[in-house]
Specification:
22% strand; 40% helix; Rossmann fold; binds S-adenosylmethionine; 7 strands; alpha/beta; 7-stranded mixed sheet
Length: 230
């Protein structure tokens, strides 16, 4: 089963949810601040979805050179329209996070390459990390936060997840999408192996993979690495 791009009514539902719940991005923004994001930097957001993170980041760091990339034409269109509505000039590209095709101008140029809540959808996880490490400049950092497979949840974590799904006042479509996303998500060891494989091609000087919740009870995997200096 393929759950990669989010298209059609699911893309619209995702945008409705995301644009009404900016606080859900706070934890990720805090991680980016910890990773050293600063005004004037070049930042690439792989699997950017409908552009909520871009609106939040450019409000806080107005001179970021920020490029959002998504495999879904629908998401790219929604992100462009949303940015225009918000009076922002932002760049969104159609592209696959599993290949730098269409991002050649950014190879080795980004200070930070990020991805939020999407890498669990990739069919080729090592290729996703490979793209991140190729885009980032020597000494720059990558940060991915995505979902963990259900079998890696402990018992209380699983119960919290079920309660979260039931209680969340979402569109039914989003509830099913979330359940499927966790069902098809990689295991923690898959994340470790994928990052290690990518780091064989583009060496890293520092890396850390850890799991914690997002303050609303759902475990996510965090993957940070710094590309070795030239
Ligand atoms: C749950 S959304 C997250 C969007 C955004 N990062 C956020 O946090 O709001 C996952 C996004 O990943 C995109 N996606 C899935 N596979 C992709 C791939 N191989 N390359 C680029 N985007 C992809 C989907 O189209 C969707 O927009």
């Amino acid at each position: 089963m393929k759950i990669e791009p989010i298209t059609g009514s699911e893309a619209e539902a995702f945008h409705r949810m995301g644009s009404r719940a900016f606080e859900r991005y706070n934890e990720f923004v805090d991680l980016l601040v910890g990773a050293g994001i600063a005004d004037g930097q070049t930042v690439v957001d792989l699997c950017c979805g409908s552009g909520e993170l871009e609106i939040i980041l450019t409000s806080r760091f107005p001179s970021l050179n920020l490029v959002g990339v998504d495999l879904s034409e629908d998401m790219v269109r929604i992100a462009r329209d949303y940015a225009a509505e918000q009076g922002k000039e932002l760049e969104f590209r159609h592209g696959d996070a599993q290949s730098p095709a269409g991002m050649e101008d950014l190879l080795g140029k980004a200070d930070l390459v990020v991805s939020r809540h999407a890498f669990h959808r990739l069919t080729r996880l090592p290729a996703g990390f490979d793209t991140m490490l190729r885009l980032v400049k020597p000494g720059g950092a990558i940060l991915n936060v995505s979902f963990l497979h259900l079998s890696d949840f402990d018992e209380p974590g699983f119960r919290t997840w079920v309660r979260f799904l039931k209680e969340r006042p979402w569109d039914a479509e989003m509830q099913v999408a979330w359940a499927l996303a966790h069902y098809y998500a990689p295991r923690l060891q898959d994340y470790r192996d994928a990052l290690a494989q990518a780091a064989d091609e583009t060496p890293v000087s520092e890396q850390r993979i850890w799991v914690d919740d997002q303050g609303y009870g759902v475990a996510t995997v965090k993957c940070f690495a710094r590309r070795a200096a030239a």
